[in-house]
Design brief:
mainly alpha, three-stranded antiparallel beta sheet, 7 helices, 61% helix
Length: 233
């Protein structure tokens, strides 16, 4: 939803995420239950997932990092997969691959914020600015789509962002970098909490006020689209 204020100098972007529900149909659940009984995690290769986790948790000992990755994976696999999206439960190694993909996308988005700062410092061309903004929006969409396809977040959340209009592309781009930095910080916190939680399965009161991965990534995508349009003027 977009709301233009009366002065026309700013845009309020509000995004919301509806509660997702697990598919409780008897047929779907019986398939899920049978698969649960048969699955073994012994042959799963967690190497790439542990490498990505190390980037988020650099101070953890190797043994602790391994336990963190495996405990989170098992909890997510049995409790947070979007089972309504699949006829059969995806193979565990595929789920590992998707988690790695989301962690990598999150890392790439953080890197683009730094590239944006460098563009500001060297006063890069309008083409370079638009290219970075477009790339950010594409990655944010890919992250959101991957997350929504494979994983659930049953919280209902929203986020409102004030996107101002500036007379120059330089000012508009600086504003965008500030907004994307804020969104990326929140997104990183949510990604870590979802996939690398020290206490998976434990719900704390403060979590109900947090913004979901879906909402934050969609917000970043839409802000990027809007900024790219303004940089073309």
């Amino acid at each position: 939803m977009k709301l233009l204020n009366c002065a026309g100098l700013s845009v309020l972007l509000a995004f919301s995420c509806l509660k997702a529900q697990l598919d409780r149909r008897p047929a779907a659940r019986s398939i899920w239950d049978r698969r649960e009984a048969q699955l073994s995690f012994e042959n799963i290769d967690f190497t790439l997932l542990q490498e990505q986790a190390r980037r988020h948790k650099p101070t953890l000992a190797c043994e602790d990092l391994e336990k963190l990755v495996q405990s989170n994976f098992q909890f997510i696999f049995f409790n947070k997969l979007n089972t309504a999206h699949f006829l059969f439960t995806p193979e565990p190694q595929i789920v590992v691959k998707k988690i790695v993909s989301i962690l990598r996308l999150n890392e790439q988005l953080r890197g683009l914020v730094q590239e944006g700062r460098e563009l500001v410092a060297k006063k890069g061309s309008d083409h370079e600015k638009r290219q970075l903004v477009r790339h950010t929006g594409n990655l944010a969409k890919e992250l959101r789509d991957t997350f929504q396809q494979y994983f659930l977040d049953i919280r209902e959340s929203s986020y409102t962002l004030n996107v101002r209009t500036f007379e120059t592309n330089y000012g508009q781009f600086i504003h965008y970098i500030a907004l994307s930095q804020r969104l990326n910080r929140l997104l990183t916190e949510e990604v870590e909490h979802y996939f690398l939680n020290p206490t998976p399965g434990v719900i704390e009161i403060f979590e109900y006020g947090d913004v979901s991965i879906t909402v934050l990534s969609e917000c970043l995508q839409r802000v990027s689209t809007l900024t790219e349009e303004r940089l073309r003027r």
